[in-house]
Design a protein that fits this description.
- By secondary structure, the chain is α/β, with parallel strands linked by helices.
- It has two domains: 30-120 and 219-266, Periplasmic binding protein-like II (D-Maltodextrin-Binding Protein, domain 2), CATH 3.40.190; 124-216, Periplasmic binding protein-like II (D-Maltodextrin-Binding Protein, domain 2).
- The protein contains eleven helices and 13 strands.
- A five-stranded mixed beta sheet has the order 10-9-11-8-12, sandwiched between helices. The chain has a three-stranded parallel beta sheet with strand order 5-1-6. The protein has a three-stranded antiparallel beta sheet with strand order 2-3-4, covered by helices on one side.
- Belongs to the bacterial solute-binding protein 3 family.
- It comes from Treponema ruminis.
- This is Polar amino acid transport system substrate-binding protein.
- InterPro entries: Bact_solute-bind_prot3 (IPR051455), Solute-binding_3/MltF_N (IPR001638).
């Protein structure tokens, strides 16, 4: 009887090993993407001017402009997958997308779960608030409510450094900004590039804190271990740097928002080099 049990256990272990050995990885190589003629890219649908859906139902923005060039150079079409900030890692781990281009700030914790390519943008945190009670330093938020989106660097930064600030968290950026407009928080924090753009389009609100925390980089992310797509992206970003592609991206998608006197170099990273 004992021998039969041992034999059964051994057979089960062999079967499990075989299944594991033949399990398909939850990512696609460049060749597989080309063969399918479609690349699946996760972008924001509500974070203007970086990734959003316009009145005609078309994806637009700085990240989308880059996504379109990636598809062109791969010789495929893009299938956009809308993503919330907190789900950017998950959609890669589950194989729902090949690539995330959703204002994804590079952090050590995230780099343990996904592989980041070279950066194409830089930013810090900012805080936008009502002009009538402008937040000028983080301490002004002590005992007050700050609006953030889940899974963002703003959520992490204030949780770790300013525990006296009450955080009101939302899944979607549109929900977060509506909460600020409704007066449900003293301010809202996310990337300074984004709050500066939002304040320009919303009179009565200003960015009282334009740079908070460290200078961070934003980069494309692929599933952990997908060296095929990662290496292709790194070479693509280097090549695009030679033609100043991201400055052209800025002119096409951000200049009208930030104004004629805005400095593209404060945001743009060319060739992956800071």
């Amino acid at each position: 009887m004992k021998k039969s049990v041992k034999t059964l256990i051994a057979a089960s272990l062999v079967a499990l090993t075989a299944v594991s050995a033949f399990a398909k990885p939850k990512f696609r190589t460049v060749e597989q993407i080309k063969k399918s003629k479609t690349i699946k890219i996760a972008v924001f649908s509500d974070k203007k001017p970086f990734g959003y859906v316009d009145e005609y139902g078309k994806y637009q923005g700085y990240d989308v402009y880059f996504a379109e060039r990636i598809a062109k150079d791969l010789g495929v079409k893009v299938k956009y997958v809308p993503v919330e900030a907190a789900a950017r890692v998950e959609v890669l781990e589950t194989g729902k997308v090949d690539l995330v281009l959703a204002n994804f700030t590079v952090t050590p914790a995230r780099a343990e779960k996904v592989d980041f390519a070279l950066p194409y943008m830089k930013c810090a945190l900012g805080v936008v608030s009502n002009d009538k009670d402008l937040i000028k330093k983080p301490e002004d938020l002590n005992g007050k409510t700050l609006i953030v989106s889940k899974g963002t660097t703003a959520e992490t930064f204030f949780t770790e450094n300013y525990p006296q600030v009450n955080l009101l968290k939302f899944d979607q950026y549109s929900e977060a900004y509506n909460a600020l407009l409704d007066g449900r928080g003293a301010g809202l924090s996310t990337d300074n590039t984004e709050v500066l753009a939002w304040a320009i389009e919303n009179p009565g609100f200003s960015v009282g804190i334009e740079s908070l925390g460290s200078l961070d980089t934003i980069a494309p992310a692929v599933t952990k271990g997908n060296s095929s797509l990662l290496n292709w992206l790194n070479e693509e970003i280097k090549k695009l740097g030679n033609e100043k592609f991201f400055h052209a991206d800025y002119e096409a998608t951000l200049r009208a928002v930030y104004g004629p006197n805005s400095d593209a170099d404060s945001l743009v990273v060319e060739g992956g080099q800071l």
